[in-house]
Amino acid sequence: MFDFTYHRPATLANASTQLANAEHKPLAGGMSLIPSLKFRLNRHAALVDLGAIAELRGIRREGDTLVVGATTPHAEVAGSTLVRQALPALSVLAEGIGDPLVRNRGTIGGSIAHADPAADYPSAVLGLNATVVTQQRSIAAEDFFKGVFETALQPGEIITAVRFPCGPLTQRAGYAKYRQPASRFALVGVFVVQTAAGVRVAVTGAAPSVFRFTAAEAALNKRFDPSALEGVTLDANGLNSDIHASAVYRAHAVVEMAKRAVAAALGQGGSN
User: Fold this and answer.
1) Considering the entire predicted model, what is its pTM?
2) Which of 62, 145, 163, 211 gives the lowest tally of CB atoms within 10 Å of its CB?
């Protein structure tokens, strides 16, 4: 690990000032950043720890919106009564992330800012058509994820919260993933949401970045049932292929996980 200076500001304003320096890096839970520093894959002049900024943590409901603070750990999302009542599928997703250490240290803001192709949260953000809020602006889910470890965040921009639609407009939702047994990252993860405006199906783990499975959405808009996905296929071109699963395997797994996510949304059980 290379040497760096450590800062732990108590306010968002102070953190923003520190991160105005392009050589400074924000630190949330550190579940991805710290290993990369240990392996000397990254080098930063300073780390700016966001953990002491109280306004970045917590869960609240504002009408038909569930607001999750950026530094809220996965374990808090999984165990929150408020989340379980408003968006139970989000609770299920958070409960299946990594192991107890990761769930207690990793944060929702850190996860989506890192934009790992196999991370769970991006599928919920895109599937639920959430809004990512920073200290400078609000970013729609469709505009946030750009590619492998790439987002719309600008240098010095800090995620403060994620706003998830809930209530009557989000009728049913379910999440299912086929996990890599060692890392528990998603080889394939599918988040399905039925809304008044139509069905959204977001896929993580299968491609360089989270994406919507439009063929599945079209089928489920006609009939919201796992059987509606019989015969639906996903083109394997452009999907991830590695030692864990080929692109063709992932293409098949996406359809199967989508079926399980729909079943979970209907209260018929699912897989995480």
Assistant:
1) 0.94
2) 62
Q: Spell out the residues 6+ positions from residue 85 whose beta carbon is closer than 8 angstroms to its own.
A: none
pLDDT digits (tens, 9 = 90+) for 71-117: 999 999 999 999 999 999 999 999 999 999 999 999 999 999 999 99
Domain 172-265: which topology? Answer: Enolase-like; domain 1 (3.30.390)
